[in-house]
Amino acid sequence: MAARGGFNSRIGFIAAAAGSAVGLGNIWKFPFEVGQGGGAAFVLVYLLLAFALGFPVMVTEIAIGRRTQKNPVGAYEALGFKNWRWLGLMGIIAGVLILSFYNVVAGWAFGYFLEMLRGHFDVGQHFGEFTQDMLRSGGYGLAFMFMTALIVSRGVSGGIERASKILMPALVIMMLGLVAYAFTLPHAMEGIKFYLLPDFSKITVPVIYRALGQAFFSLSLGMGALITYGSYVSKQENIVTSAAIITLADVGIAFLAGLMMFPFVFSQGLEPTGGPGLIFVTLPGIFASLGTGLGIIIGSVFFLLLSFAALTSTVSLLEVPVSYVVDEFKLKRPLAVWLIAGLIFLMSIPAMLANGASEFWSQFITYPGAQSATDYMTFIGHIANDSLLPLGGALIALFAAYIWKKHNLNQELEEGFPNFKGTWAEKFIDLSVSYLAPVVLIIIFILNVLDRFFGIQVF
Hints:
- There is one protein chain.
- With 459 residues, the protein is mostly helical.
- Helices cover 77% and strands 0% of the residues.
- Helix 3 (40-68) packs antiparallel against helix 12 (239-267).
- It is globular and about 60 Å long.
């Protein structure tokens, strides 16, 4: 434990793990998924899946990490199941693929923060030009990867834990301020009604698997991040209550993001179905309408908030392959960090080009399920976020329940929670990990693959 490092406090672990969960998935992706998923109906499905499936899988991942004190690949071997190392490797690959496009969007957020400070509100009208400018967009992405690598290179307690303790409270304070301001805007209540009053006819199978994908993406499940963070947790930690707090923090931040975003959108008479460009195309114009002074303040605070949220997640995504290389190949942490960060940045170049060179990528990336020839970033999202994460979650649950065995999982959860046996939490986690999570996740995975890659909608 001493050689690998670890979290110095429970608050540090929760802040870091919540930071891993809270990110662009909550503030950038969640609002446009809600908009395209029919509003409050999507929110209800998302909340249900986050707690019914996401929370138990999170508990399981953290428990596996703490029991083994290993990275996602080494964990399965340490438990005595070397033949399952591939599952950890699949999670690492998914995380690396996600980071390769996640860092690009994080770079946009950081770039927009600087543009807002300079009062360049017209950047939203020229989003395509912004993303096509490789020197500018690539430079922001490089700067963001550098900040991420710098934090991870300083270790678990000195880098990840310390940064998370600062970034997470700052993020919440800025978000609450923006929510309070959004509520004062004209027509704000129309946005709140769209967000909180459900139309149950909007709940369809595609909405369900999009909500599931959003829950797993935002909770950092199925990619080895929480196995990795769990490996740095002490035996005195109550995993069940910590995972509950992390899940609440994650869905709470996502919920706040919706309370902030939809009053902004409806105050300007805009459509909530704006998709991924909702933040980068629509919001700068809204900030411009506030006048130069107030617009600069609100706009720069918003994109600084987005950058902070992204940074807490890019840190956890980079830590996963770093822990693997440090554990398995005995590289020094700083060397492993900078080598892997450099490699992932190179992998992110196609994602940087995707929005500026979609015609180029679309001639290579075509498949029956695509609405039309798609771009690289969308393609990687379909593979990693929509497919590998739910599949990874299902397999982790099956492994814990039927290979490692449920009594071993319970034994680990009793560390730090002596009265766990016989509680509602034990019964619920047992039910979800043994039956609910594997069945639902595998069904959703199959339906998603049929839809995304073969254009077949079963329902």
